[in-house]
Amino acid sequence: MMKAPLTILLAGPRGFCAGVERAVQIVERSIERFGAPVYVRHEIVHNRYVVQALERKGAIFVDELDAVPAGAAVVFSAHGVPKAVPAEAERRRLVSIDATCPLVSKVHRETEHHFAQGRRVILIGHAGHPEVVGTMGQLPPGAVLLVETPEDVAGLALDAGEDVAYVTQTTLSVDDTDAVIAALVARFAHIQGPKHEDICYATTNRQQAVKAIAGRVDRLLVVGAPNSSNSLRLVEVARQSGCGRSALIGRAADIDWSFLAGARRLGLTAGASAPEALVEEVVEACRRRYDLALEEITLTREEVRFNLPHALDA
Question: What is the pTM of this model?
Answer without folding.
Answer: 0.93
